Structure formats: structure tokens, C-alpha cells
Amino acid sequence: MQSDVVFRTVQNWDDYSDKYARRIQKNTSVFCMTLLNMLHYEEVENILDAGCGAGYLHQLMINQKKVEAHLYGFDLSSQMVKRAGARMKRFLNQEKIGSLDLLTQEEVDLVNFDDEIFKKINYHLSVGSVEDLSQYQNEMFDIYICNLVYQIIGNQEKAMIEAFRVLKPGGKLGITVWGRRENCVALWFLKELAIKTGLLKIRMQGGGKFLQNSDELIQLATKTGFINLVCWQQMAPFDILSMNKIEDFFNPEIEVILAGSTQEQQDIFYKSLEKMINDYKKENKPFPFECYFLIAEKPK
Ligand SMILES: C[S@@+](CC[C@H](N)C(=O)[O-])C[C@H]1O[C@@H](n2cnc3c(N)ncnc32)[C@H](O)[C@@H]1O
């Protein structure tokens, strides 16, 4: 599953982390929740959340895991992982509960991964890549989850081999990747609108790889040595309901396109966007995001 698309840089992910934590991860975590439900994480000792982003479900996992169990999370973007840490600190300090998404940059900057507050709950955060898990020992984890990362990395084989290595015999893998392009409107409608309204001349391929079916995923896991594969697809609608704070959904690519456009072009773009959102609302149509899921086991 080698890919030729251009991926976001670490800097892009760092810059995107505030919006991602505040607005986007609420949508994508639906898939992560499904993975967790399938993997019975409440019963195990060591859990790894690979490419955890801003750790949207980590409070839930900390509450539901066994007290002595360890939750490890890492991401390529330090700003993402620090946001996961800042959220956890708020949660543990029971401060401003209900506003876990509204982190200040100061809170984020102050996060120290070695903080005693994290050690007490067996919560371990770090910066790293799914393609190189050398920070973890062989056969360390009961569960490896990776939600929406494999489609945006350069070498999926390497990532899968590393996942296999760090899992215990009998350990479980759970990953999700983007599904069929036509069923992932939420991911590309803004770029498509930018083309339609003349802000963008050509369709650039970028940001990730869509899958037509689950064959590649199954082959990849089987080749790596995983058994008892379960694969399915699932759709989650993005909660794009109005123009209120619509900029929160603008990813780095759209921001660059808008920044390079004239005021007149931007006005046309915004007007078309408003019409599109209103039409979707009128028809009760979702902004769909489809994923392929894979659950598999390392042989005992
Ligand atoms: C779509 S987000 C998914 C985040 C999280 N898993 C979730 O469920 O919301 C993709 C994440 O992958 C991270 N990422 C990109 N390349 C990575 C890599 N090679 N290793 C680890 N994380 C990576 C990004 O920084 C970003 O946080």
C-alpha cells in the first residue's frame, strides 16, 4: 500500500492541532470509539494509541481501563500530543469540566510528559512516528489502535510490521483508513468548491489515500502475519450544520487557497458554501466520511 500522494508536514499538523482538537476530532473519534468497543480495552494491561492526535477519547479510556493498566499515546505532531496532555490535566484537576476543547496555548505549552499527574494514572504520552516504534519493547501491548493515520503515511508496511512487533502474542490490532472517495465528501467538498468557484485551477492530489475496497488492507495485515481478520466499513457524518465558525473546518490546504485568493473570489466561495450547507440541511443530507475498519490478532 505504498502511496504517491503529498502528505502534510509535521508543521502542518502542529498548525492544525488547535482546530483539530476543538472541532474536527469530535467527528473522527466516532471511528475510534468503534475500535475501542471492538477491542474490549477495559480488560487489558497495556494499550497503545498510535497517532493519537489530541487524545479525544483518552479521558474515557482512563476512566474505563483497569486501574493498573497503562495507556500509551503518541503522535508525530508535538502540538497534538501536548493538547492530549493539557486536556487530561484539566480533566484530572476537575477544572473547567465541560470545556475540554477550549485549551489556551499556554496550557498546551506547559504540558510536561513526565508530569507526576500522568504517572499516577499510568498515562504515557510521547512524540513519534507509527513507522518507527523503537521507543517500545517487543510484545509490550495487548492492544494497538490507530485511527485515521495509515492513509496519510509513506510506508504502511513498515507501520504494520512495527505494530506486529510491539503486540503481545494474542494481542489485537485495530485500524481505520479512509474509504471510497465518493463516500468521503466531508474530506474534500471545500477543495471541490474552491475549484468550482475558480479559486483553484487544478485538482491537486494531496493529504491522503482513499481506498476503493478493503483488499489492500487485508493483504497488508495478512502479509505481516496477523490472523482472525475482521474488516468492515462505516460512515460518520461531519457536524457541519451552519456557517457559524465554519472556518474551524478549514484545513491547512484550504487556508492556503483562500489566502492566495482575491476578496471577490473569497466572497463567491463563501456564498456558494452557505448555499451548499443550507441545501444539505434542507434535504437532511449528511456530509459523509467513510472508513474501512480492520481488527486482527497476532498469533499466540
Ligand atoms: C486524522 S488525524 C487522527 C488523529 C487521531 N487518531 C484521531 O482519532 O482523531 C491524523 C493524525 O496522524 C498524525 N500523524 C501523521 N503522520 C504520522 C506518523 N507518521 N506517525 C504518527 N502520527 C502521524 C497527525 O499528526 C494527526 O494527529
Automatic annotation (TrEMBL):
Pfam family, one: Methyltransf_11
Methyltransferase type domain segment(s): 48-173
Signal peptide segment: none
InterPro entries the record matches: Methyltransf_11
GO molecular function per UniProt: S-adenosylmethionine-dependent methyltransferase activity
Protein name, as recorded: Methyltransferase type 11 domain-containing protein
Organism annotation: Paramecium sonneborni
